[in-house]
Amino acid sequence: MNQKEGGPCAAVFDLDGTLIDSAPDMASAVNRAFVTHGLDATDPAVVAGLIGNGAHRLVADLLARQRIPAAPSDIEALTDAYLRCYAEAPVVSTTIYPYVAQDLAALKAAGWRLGICTNKPQALTHAVLAGLGIDHLFDAVRGADAVPTRKPDPGHLRAVIEALGVHRAVYVGDTEVDEATARAAGVPFRGVGWAAPGRLSMPEAERLARLSELLT
Ligand SMILES: O=C(O)COP(=O)(O)O
Ligand SMILES: [Mg+2]
After folding, report:
1. What was the ipTM of the complex prediction?
2. What keyword terms does UniProt attach to this protein (predicted)?
3. Which residue among the candidates 14, 25, 103, 174 is catalytic per the annotation?
4. Are residues 172 and 193 in the same domain?
């Protein structure tokens, strides 16, 4: 996609695993919540592989891994505890992936409108973007609780694109949830080359080496 083809274009990004490596802080928060409730902590590398479907699903998946039967109300309580722990320390070990900040700035300077479509809750998304000093780059940000139905429902991505006020957009992500969301919304999808193995169905060779490739 190219600005020269007419009309503003937008690049909408998934957040965790796409623009930022937030897995260490997310793993630390969910493990603090589990341990506080008398449950076991999980290897942060395992937690990292489960991120992308939102907080509730992360907690449910971790409980299932530990073979702990849990009522919906237990999962709710643990999810609330996880999100409280995360909000207390949203940016301690989280980092922006290499070149992402400068490539986002280059896209913005070239006239692209930039958006975020993430399954992270809205307040935490803003806290993390602000903590990393990249919140000013985005024209529309929609977390999981800022839309009636979240990813993989295509309405989540469509809501971001509508807020950006563009007719042409691309979605960039790191998991099959993102791929499926884009497909269902009829939006072109690009996967990041630094996505963890097995998280995207598209071949490695077809993924973005750098976000600046969107400019070409
Ligand atoms: O699973 C989450 O909490 C958020 O993940 P996402 O930013 O990749 O959508
Ligand atoms: Mg992701």
Report:
1. 0.97
2. Hydrolase
3. 14
4. yes
For the entire predicted model, the pTM comes to 0.95
The CATH number assigned to the domain holding 204 equals 3.40.50.1000
User: Assign residue 14 a region: left if phi > 0, alpha if psi is -120 to 50, beta otherwise?
Assistant: beta
Same domain, 39 and 116: no
Q: What confidence tens digit (pLDDT) does each residue in 53-84 have?
A: 999 999 999 999 999 999 999 999 999 999 99
Q: For residue 88, which of 30, 44, 42 has the smallest C-alpha distance?
A: 30
Residue 197 Cα to ligand 2 midpoint, Å, equals 13
Cα–Cα distance for residue pair 104/110, rounded to 1 Å: 10
Is residue 14 among the annotated active site residues?
yes
| 197 SS3 class | coil
134 and 202 share a domain? Answer: yes
5 confidence band (pLDDT: 50, 70, 90): low
Best of 79, 119, 179 for a ligand 1 pocket test (most atoms within 8 Å of beta carbon): 119
Ligand 1 atom closest to the Cα of residue 53 is 1
Look up the domain containing 117 and give its range: 3-21+94-215
C-alpha–C-alpha distance, residues 181 and 50, integer Å: 17
Give the pLDDT band (50/70/90) at residue 3. low
Residue 16: strand, helix, or coil: strand
Write the CATH number for 55: 1.10.150
Are 10 and 56 members of one domain?
A: no
